[in-house]
Amino acid sequence: MSTVSQMALLFIGAALVNNILLTRFIGLCPFFGVSGNMETSLGMSLAVVFVMTMASSATWVVWQYVLEPLGVGEFLYIPAFILIIASLVQFVEMYLRKASPVLYRAMGIYLPLITTNCAVLAAATESAKPGFFKLNIALGSSLSLGEALVYTLGVSVGFGFALVTFAALRERLELAPVSRLFKGTPIAFITASLLSLAYIGFSGWFGL
Amino acid sequence: MKEWYAAFRQGLSIENPLTVLMIGLCATLAVSTQVQNAVFMGFAVVFVLTMSNVIVSAFRRQIPTEVRIPIFIVVIASFVTIVDLSMNAFVPGIYQVLGIWIPLIVVNCVILGRAEAFAYHNRVSLSIADGLGMGIGYWSVIVLLAALRELFGTGRIVWFDTALVQLPSGYQPPGLLLLFPGAFLVFGFMIAGSRWANEKLEARKEARACRP
User: Fold this and answer.
1) Which secondary structure element, helix H or strand E, spans residue B163, and what is its range?
2) What is the pLDDT of residue B11?
3) Closest residue, chain B, to A195 (C-alpha)
4) What is the pLDDT of residues B161-199, one digit of tens each?
5) pLDDT tens-place values along chain A, 208 residues long
6) Mean pLDDT, to the nearest integer, of B79-83?
7) How far does A146 lie from chain B, in Å, by closest CA?
8) CA of B132: how far to CAs of A131, B51, B137, in Å?
9) Which of B24, B119, B149, B176 is most buried by a 10 A CB count?
10) How far is it, in rounded angstroms, from Cα B127 to Cα B43?
11) Least CB-CB distance to A121: which of B81, B107, B184?
C-alpha cells in the first residue's frame, strides 16, 4: 500500500466501513457519557483525534524498535501500551495547559478520561501489530509508520463523526415525547441501535 | 460481617456497574452474542476486579496519591495478562472468540473505578466483598443480555455444543438480534425493564412503610 488511492481506501475503511464505535463496539463509554450535548461531544472528538494519533505513533515505534526485537511483545504489550498512553496523555495535558490555553479549554477535561478509553488502546495496538483486533480486514500483516498514521486518523475521525451525529440525535430526542420508562438512556440505546444499523449499510462499500 | 455483606450487596443492585452506572459497556455489548462467551468474559472480569481490589487495598498506605492512577493501571494490566495467557492456554476455543476483548479489560472503567472509589479507601476484606459484588453484578447482567440475544436471535441456547433451551421449531429467529444493532436494542429494553422493576420495589417498600 503506497499510492494515494490506497491510503484513501484505508482511511475510509477505518472511518466508515469499520467504524470503531458503531460496528466494533469499542469506546462506548464516552459515546453514551458525553453525547448529551453537542459542545462536549465536539471537544471529546477533537481530543480523541489528537491523542489517538499521537498514541499510536508512539506505540508503533516502541513495538517496532523495543518490544519486537527483544522478543517480549507477546506478554508485555498490554502494560507497555497502556503505560505509554497514560503517560503521553499526562504529558500532552501539561504541555497544552502551558502552550495553548485555548486548545486546553476546548478539550482539557476530556484528556484524562481518554486514558481509560478502550478505543485508544485498541487503535494503538492495531497499528502496532495489525490484524490482532481485526478492526480492518484490509490491513496487511504489518504497517509502515505512514500507514499506521493514516489508519488511526481514519479511526479517530470515524469515532468523532459517529459521536457528533449521535449527540445531534440526542439533542433532538430531548424534545420528543417518550414513554416514561424509556426516557433518557434506554431510548438513547435504541437510537444507537438504529444508527448502527445505518452503519452496517457501509459494509457493502468496496467489499471491505 | 454485616458491613461485608452490605459492600457485597451494593454491586448487585443499587450500584450495578452496567444497568445503573453505565460503565464498562463495550465488552458487554460485543461478547454477548452467546451465553458461553458471556459466562467466561464475566468470570475474567470478576477475577481481575477482585484481585486488583485486593492488591490496591493491601498497598493503599504505600501508594502515593499523585501517581495512584498509573500504579492501579499496572496492577490491573498484570492481572489481565495472567487471564489473557491462561485463557489462551486452557480454553483456546473461547479465547478465539473473546481474544480481542481480554486485553481491553485493562481499560474497562468498572475495574479502575472500583480501585479508585473503593479499594483505595477500604480494608482488604471489604475490598474483596466489593470486588465480588460488583463482579457478580456485572456477570449477571452480561449473561442475561447474552441469554436474551442468543435465545431470541437463534432460537436456542447452546452450552459447549449441547442445546440447553430450545424454542418451538415454528419460531423464525430475527438475525438482527445477533448483529451489532441488536445488542443496543436489547440492552435499551433491559435498562427500561430494570427501571420498571426498581419502581415496583420502591412502591412496595413505601406501602410496607406506611402500614402501621
Assistant:
1) strand B162-166
2) 67
3) B181
4) 777 777 777 777 787 888 888 888 888 888 888 888 878
5) 457 877 888 888 888 887 888 877 787 777 877 777 788 788 888 888 888 888 888 888 888 888 888 877 777 887 888 888 888 888 878 887 888 787 777 666 677 767 667 788 888 888 877 766 665 555 566 778 888 888 889 889 999 999 999 999 988 888 888 888 888 888 888 898 898 888 888 776 655 4
6) 90
7) 24
8) 34, 10, 8
9) B119
10) 17
11) B107
Element (H, E) at B157: strand B156-159
Strand partners, B165: B157
Taking the C-alpha atoms of residue B197 and residue B58, their distance in angstroms, rounded to an integer, is 37
Cα B104 from chain centroid? 14
**How many of the other CB atoms lie within 10 Å of CB of A195?**
18
Set of chain B residues whose Cβ sits within 8 Å of the Cβ of A118: 26, 104, 107-108
Q: Which residues of A touch B100 (CB under 8 A)?
A: 122, 132-134
pLDDT for B19 equals 64
Interface test with B, best of A93, A137, A180, A189 (most B CBs within 10 A): A189
Q: What are the DSSP calls for B53-110, one per residue? A: HHHHHHTTTTS-GGGHHHHHHHHHHHHHHHHHHHHHHH-HHHHHHHTTTTGGGGG-HH
C-alpha cell of residue B13: 443492585
Q: Which of B109, B180, B192 is nearest residue A196 as measured by Cβ atoms?
A: B180
Whether A78 sits inside 8 A of B69 (CB atoms) is no
Between CA B63 and CA B56 the distance in angstroms is 8
Amino acid at A132: F
Does residue B153 sit at the A interface (CB-CB below 8 Å)? no
Is pLDDT of B5 > 70?
yes
Nearest-CA residue of chain B relative to A196? B181
Closest CA to B128 of B56, B196, B78, B200: B56
pLDDT in tens, A109-131: 677 767 667 788 888 888 877 76
ipTM: 0.76
3-state secondary structure of B162: strand
The closest CB to that of B25, out of A29, A132, A134, belongs to A29
In the block, residue with C-alpha cell 445477533: B178
